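Please review the protein record below. Tell me whether the encoded fold seems credible here:
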Amino acid sequence: MNSTISRTFQQLPNQWMLLLVSYCFFFCITPMVAQRASWVDRPNIQVGVEFSVLFDSQLLQNFESSTLSNSGNHSFETLTGTSYRFGGFVRFRFYQNQHIETGIYRTARRYDSSVSLPSSSDDLATASVQSIAYELPAIWSVSIRVSETGYMFAGFGGVATFFASNFGSFGGDLQLNGIADPRFIPGIQAHVGYEWDWGSSGGLYLGGNFQHNFDNVGRMGLRYREGIDTIANGVLDLNGSYFAAVIRYMLPGS
């Protein structure tokens, strides 16, 4: 039994282990810290703007990044490129160090695709496409006051992702057709971070997010053409789960 548990933890990615340890730390010592620290100087409602850089995550997922064409003569691959998330943030404090966090975010995910022969690593054609989605999270978080102006946060909750439209790239030899189906995708989100409260100058938050979607965020149809002739077709499911490096500015007076 102990060896099984040990192997399970060894298989977890380093990012997930960091989140797990951080949550144990926060939720174990938060009640003690909350009793010692004074929270009367913290506003009940805080507003901010947030920017994140996204990194593809396969945690709790098993999405293939490549597939053979319908004829088996060509290989298609789609990888997630550098992606970004930007939006507005609102935090409601309802009991000392307990909070409800929400906001609305615009997420731009870039997918880089290529087609090659299975026997060769040389790309016959490449193309890129960007999907636009909007996220609405509802997160319960706790905070620990570690200094006069410093707070550490950990949160967990749900998130709904909405795709406004399909997306595609139809120029060149490799044509991409992204189908956002379903348009609404539920998921979970967790975060850990540190916030500096500068009073009348606002505040700065640095942290990390993990988001897991309960379904794929769409399907990518790939078509390789030479002139007007279609040579090969393929289809891949798209993974939308990610880890994110987050920077947030809290507005003055909030």
